UniProtKB/TrEMBL annotation:
Protein name according to UniProt: Dihydrolipoamide dehydrogenase
One Pfam family hit: Pyr_redox_2
Keyword Transmembrane helix listed: no
Cofactors that this protein relies on: FAD
Domain of life: Eukaryota
Pyridine nucleotide-disulphide oxidoreductase dimerisation domain span: 364-471
Protein family per UniProt: Belongs to the class-I pyridine nucleotide-disulfide oxidoreductase family.
Positions with a binding annotation for NAD(+): G180, A181, G182, Y183, I184, G185, L186, E187, E203, G278
Residues annotated as the enzyme's active site: H462 (proton acceptor)
Species this chain originates from: Didymodactylos carnosus
Protein keywords: Disulfide bond, FAD, Flavoprotein, NAD, NADP, Nucleotide-binding, Oxidoreductase, Redox-active center
InterPro entries: FAD/NAD-bd_sf (IPR036188), FAD/NAD-binding_dom (IPR023753), FAD/NAD-linked_Rdtase_dimer_sf (IPR016156), Pyr_nuc-diS_OxRdtase (IPR001100), Pyr_nucl-diS_OxRdtase_dimer (IPR004099), Pyr_OxRdtase_I_AS (IPR012999)
Record-annotated FAD/NAD(P)-binding domain positions: 4-330
């Protein structure tokens, strides 16, 4: 039986970064990935990169102002093809990155624990099994889409899609219902609306984007309405029934029945239905109980401490599976947490800084990639007030920025919240083109405790969206 210093289960962002780090230290590493289509993990194959690629082409499609569905559909199909070419290229690159390193062996198969240091790998549908042993084991198995069990017909319907399968569509749906107005729901509503689908967005709660301030969520709501997206709040999906076959031919699509705020039961038609109600940890058939690795209840995330150690010594969990924020850059930061503690323990590198842990991780930013993008960091205005801060708000419309005029991207709202006692930035919400870039400048000022005046008085190249900080932060 092969023995390894480190076994990594799952080719996610954290794991694929950890593998070469160990290999460079001369350790023998096994990387186990169950799907050949997933080398590189969710982000590059079925998550961030393909969805952002489609967002890019959807925007181009909108700019083309196609007159017919046939033109829109042709452009959509070409976009899916280009997205597939991009993910294939990145998958190969990711595989080669690890496969070319002499200390790393990649196994293709489903991994499960036999005991705390023994892993079984099932490949070719369980026809071949192999066991390997590891001193240290890292679980990086990601998350899977949640499919609600309380919607009648959801399992049987052929019109149900997840974020993965909707990006494999061969035809642009004329009508699309999206269940869930979270990250995925909002991004895909924007994408498919820009490609030309008629989108209806169902949100079960009574507040649109409740984690944002009302002025920001209202600005987003208004722009979605302007795009022609139908938003139904308090929508409780009751049933999904595929349309019947007529004279031996399927009419396609399905009837979606939901209740609204007034408890009325309404039925609409949809060519496709995207379920986007969250993602749950992928602990399927991992045999965690054989290794004494505990999960949290009721959501089944792998239980970890601030160093990402599980309840079993020498087993760690990183990425979506451990219940932290579900972003690629958090999986990468999880890698840093493990790197820091194992570098320190092994004494191979002298470290001067305090090791990174989840306890000292601050100001996790995020971007929702719709058109325009919403990027956020730190506290909202309502959170700052309820935390007892005395605050000053700087707020301006996106159209106050010269670059926005040049780009013809005038929609949106910019907002920064300042602590008046310290002049430090408490938070920011940028709803504008390229906000995904500018938010990182604001975060850097926050983590390095810069007063907001540093950003206000900084020299920015022109014309850029970043130079908004000169004017936005001026009284
Ligand atoms: C549509 C969509 C868009 C997104 N957009 C963004 C975005 O713009 N920005 C952002 O930061 N985040 C985004 N995310 C979230 C981001 O993709 C995830 O947070 C991130 O990819 C999680 O990475 P991970 O390291 O946890 O593992 P993953 O990348 O999920 O990798 C886990 C791997 O483990 C494998 N695996 C699972 N079980 C086993 C087993 N038992 N044996 C062997 N292999 C196994 C899986 O096949 C998979 O390849 C998006 C997600 C989705 C779905
Ligand atoms: N840009 C990014 O960083 C990015 C993009 C996509 C996904 N992600 C990650 O993927 C994860 C999953 O995204 P998601 O959008 O699926 O989940 P989410 O948790 O962000 O949003 C789910 C939404 O669905 C609603 N909902 C739940 N049940 C419902 C029901 N039965 N009917 C109608 N609405 C219902 C919830 O109220 C919520 O608004 C996120 O946590 C995010 O971290 C990140």
């Amino acid at each position: 039986m092969e023995k390894y210093d480190a076994i990594i289960i799952g080719f996610g962002k954290g794991g694929k970064t950890l593998a070469p780090f160990f290999a460079k230290q001369g350790l023998k590493v096994a990387m186990i990935e169950e799907s050949k289509q997933m080398y590189g993990g969710t982000c590059i194959n079925i998550g961030c990169i393909p969805s952002k690629s489609l967002e890019y082409y959807a925007k181009k499609s909108k700019q083309q102002k196609f007159q017919t569905y046939e033109e829109q559909d042709r452009f959509f199909q070409e976009s899916i093809g280009k997205k597939d070419a991009l993910t294939a290229k990145l998958r190969t690159k990711n595989y080669d990155n690890l496969n070319t390193q002499k200390n790393i062996k990649i196994y293709n198969g489903h991994a499960s624990f036999v005991s705390k240091n023994l892993i079984e790998i099932d490949s070719e549908n369980g026809r071949v099994t192999e066991r390997i042993q590891g001193d240290k084991i890292f679980i990086n198995t990601g998350a899977l889409p949640l499919i609600p069990s309380n919607i009648c017909g959801i399992k049987e319907s052929k019109c149900i899609y997840t974020s993965k399968t909707i990006m494999e569509l061969k035809k642009l749906p004329k009508t699309l219902v999206i269940i869930g107005a979270g990250y995925i729901g909002l991004e895909f509503a924007s994408i498919f609306s820009d490609f030309g689908s008629k989108v209806t967005l169902f949100e079960a709660s009574n507040t649109f984007l409740s984690r944002e301030d009302e002025d920001i969520s209202k600005a987003i709501y208004d722009i979605f309405i302007k795009k022609g997206i139908n938003i139904i709040m308090n929508a409780k999906t009751q049933s999904i029934e595929d349309n019947r076959t007529v004279c031996g031919r399927s009419t396609g699509g399905a009837k979606v029945t939901y209740t609204n705020s007034q408890k009325e039961s309404i039925t609409i038609q949809a060519d496709a239905i995207l379920v986007a109600v969250g993602r749950s940890p992928n602990v399927c058939s991992l045999g965690l109980e054989n290794a004494g690795v505990k999960v949290t209840k009721p959501k089944n995330y792998i239980q970890v401490n601030e160093k990402l150690e599980t309840t079993t010594r020498n087993i760690w969990a990183l990425g979506d599976v451990n219940g932290g924020p579900q972003h690629t850059y958090i999986s990468l930061d999880d890698y840093r947490i493990i790197r820091d503690q194992l570098t320190l323990t092994d004494g191979s590198t002298a470290k001067k800084q305090q090791p990174i842990t989840t306890a000292n991780r601050r100001y996790v930013p995020y971007t929702v990639y719709m058109d325009p993008e919403l990027s956020r960091v730190g506290l909202t205005e309502k959170e700052a007030i309820s935390s007892g801060y005395k605050i000053k708000i700087f707020k301006k419309p996106t159209m106050s920025v010269p670059r926005a005029h040049q780009l013809e991207e005038l929609d949106g709202l910019l907002k920064v919240i300042i602590d008046t006692q310290t002049n430090l930035i408490l938070g920011a919400a940028l709803y504008c083109v390229y906000s995904s870039e500018v938010i990182n400048i604001i975060r850097l000022a926050m983590v390095t405790n810069q007063e907001y005046t540093v950003l206000r008085d900084s020299i920015y190249t022109h014309p850029t969206m970043a130079e908004m900080l000169n004017d936005l932060l001026s009284d």
